[in-house]
Amino acid sequence: MLNGFCNVAIDKDLTDDILKSLNDLAKKTVCIGVPDSTEHPDSNVTNAELMYIHTNGARETSMINAMQHNINNDMPYSEAHELYVHENGSPLWNIPPRPILEPAIENGKEQIAERMKEVANDALDGKNISPGLEKVGMEGQNIARDWFTNPSNNWAPNAKSTIDKKGSDRPLIGETGHLRGSITYVVKDGE
Description:
By secondary structure, this protein is mainly alpha-helical.
């Protein structure tokens, strides 16, 4: 047991350095998704557009036209869609929604939070935060890519006609894996 007093001397004030590191971290954003420029082979549809279709399912033109008035009046797409379904029922063209990014990131948020905690600690220690942010992005990218085979995705199974056509019962996984492989990340300044 130690009884007594201890003198501690601080010879350098690091408050400004710590604040600068934290401010630098606050200005960074890690984006995980599909760049709009990634073209889908043999199609004019980009992988970003394909991801949107798979997230929301396919809609008939009449539904899109009926919803457009509300969207033009600043109603979010999700609310306009919900309103349409309540009034008209669901018009899916046998392409059920199979969302990828949002549920995958939600499912992996604890892993991502652990990586962000490491980055915050690096910022507090005055270290370079860029490598840590790259790890956060890579973690998110891998979580989203793994969602294609994660049983928690609860995706509707492929129809028999789809299985017969593509020779696989795995939804959204084709021969090439282009959609899955197009998911990436970017670390950027700002929101």
